Amino acid sequence: MKHESVPIYWRNIPHYYRLVAKRCKKCGAVYFPPVIKCRCGSKELEDFELPHEGKLVEFTVLYQVGTDFLKQKPLVIGLVELSNGVKVVGQIVDVQPEKLTQGAKVEAVFRRVMVDGKYGLVMYGYKFRPVDGV
Amino acid sequence: MRDVYIVGGALYPAGRHYGKNIDDMAAEVLDKALAEAKTDIEAVFIASSTAELANKQQILGAYVLESLGLDKIPVFRIEDGDGSGGAAIALAHHVLKSEEYNCVAVVGVDKPNDVLSNQQQDIYATTLDTYFERYFGITPLAYAALMAKVYLRKYEYRYEELAQWAVLMHKHGANNPYAYLRRQIKIEDAINSELVSEPLRLYDIGPLADGAAAAVLCNNKKDGPRILSASVSTNAIPFNLRQDYDTLYSAQEAAKKALEKAKVTPRDIATAEVHDSFSIFGILALESLGFVKRGGALAAIREGDLPINLSGGLKSRGNILGATGVYQLVEVAWQLIGREFKRVDGDYGLVHNMGGVDRVSTVVVVGV
């Protein structure tokens, strides 16, 4: 979706690069995407980096994609449960989709998400890949 | 508090209307609905999901009124993605209940075919969290596919059974003069259609269509079907942190409140329009709204022709994004009085309109 905004990208870098979530200091609840108030009522939230390992709960191979992802088509989109129980949805990469299975061990990797063709802005973020490869 | 009646309604045939501007389409249906209602209106609630993104138009309501030469009427734009129409109806209903106004119009309009289909995907994906979902290439379709996988696995259905939804919708839509895809299909057509996000295929998607719908609602004229209740509920849990993937939480909560307020049960409902932007959402809506038990929707479809989405639903009538809820309201009203649809055997109808992937739902109960 040309053109993505630089400020939007810039301010979300901690979350995009290092899976930084928010954790409630009072009850320990973890929020990803980050929120400003915990459901327990507390506003005392701290940055909390999510574990980078987990397992694949479910996935789909997406053939109909938006304009930024046409060259990467098809995308494998997976629901990942990280080792602390927090779930994240993201792209699953370095896989042959037909060999991918539910329950596969995955790890977060740092990857290019898209390039804005008009201004050449390269945007990065987390994706997941199977630890044992497929 | 006075009751709210649907005293006029009009629909634009869903389709590709390259020769029309978005405000002109909205004005045409509003004019028709006003002619039928034979009343002045004191406010307009206009629902549109993508007017700025697809048609580059803001303050849409004012331009719709300009087209009709109507002056000095307040206009309110309501945007809740593809749930905009339902939200506008609920708001109009609440305002009429408060008696701030006596007669208002609700207009729903969207015109996605002013942009190319890839751009439509981009725009539709803005109903997700733009920073944490759309950014990574996730789309509503991908989420629908994940939910379909979970559902089929959990309740041990085959994909072929899910494909029955499309067959049923096309059967109903063939009888709707305002539907986009007015033809019956065979199960093979659905099963053999292009894979778009496995397990979902092309026939599991409600095609985006241009369209407009209008309803004139009054609290001082006892003409036409009555809106018994309208409730909106939001699901504030992000997709990744949900407890389960086979419940539409927003629909469940909105239905609970709306049915309670209307003092009817799901069994009293003779006809319902549910938000099947993807086939799996239609299935999950039937269960979350309380029409069938958990995991029972596909079995219920196998066993009988349910009076659900007699318009053809988003699958066959078309997904007119922010206008969808207004289409559904007019369709249910007309089904209850036998206008342009076969009259249903019963006095109550229900509308379920949803924005995004279970982000916000409106449930409206209509009675005659």
From TrEMBL, chain A:
Residues 49-111 form the ChsH2 C-terminal OB-fold domain. InterPro entries: ChsH2_C, ChsH2_Znr, NA-bd_OB-fold, Thioester_dehydratase-like. It comes from the Archaea. Residues 17-46 form the ChsH2 rubredoxin-like zinc ribbon domain. This is DUF35 domain-containing protein. It comes from Pyrobaculum islandicum (strain DSM 4184 / JCM 9189 / GEO3).
From TrEMBL, chain B:
Pfam families: Thiolase_C_1 (PF22691), Thiolase_N (PF00108). InterPro entries: Thiolase (IPR002155), Thiolase-like (IPR016039), Thiolase_C_2 (IPR055140), Thiolase_N (IPR020616). Residues 4-220 form the Thiolase N-terminal domain. GO terms for molecular function: acyltransferase activity, transferring groups other than amino-acyl groups. Residues 247-366 form the Thiolase C-terminal domain. GO terms for biological process: isoprenoid biosynthetic process. Keywords: Isoprene biosynthesis. Signal peptide: none annotated. This is Acetyl-CoA C-acyltransferase. It comes from Pyrobaculum islandicum (strain DSM 4184 / JCM 9189 / GEO3). The lineage of its organism: Archaea, Thermoproteota, Thermoprotei, Thermoproteales, Thermoproteaceae.
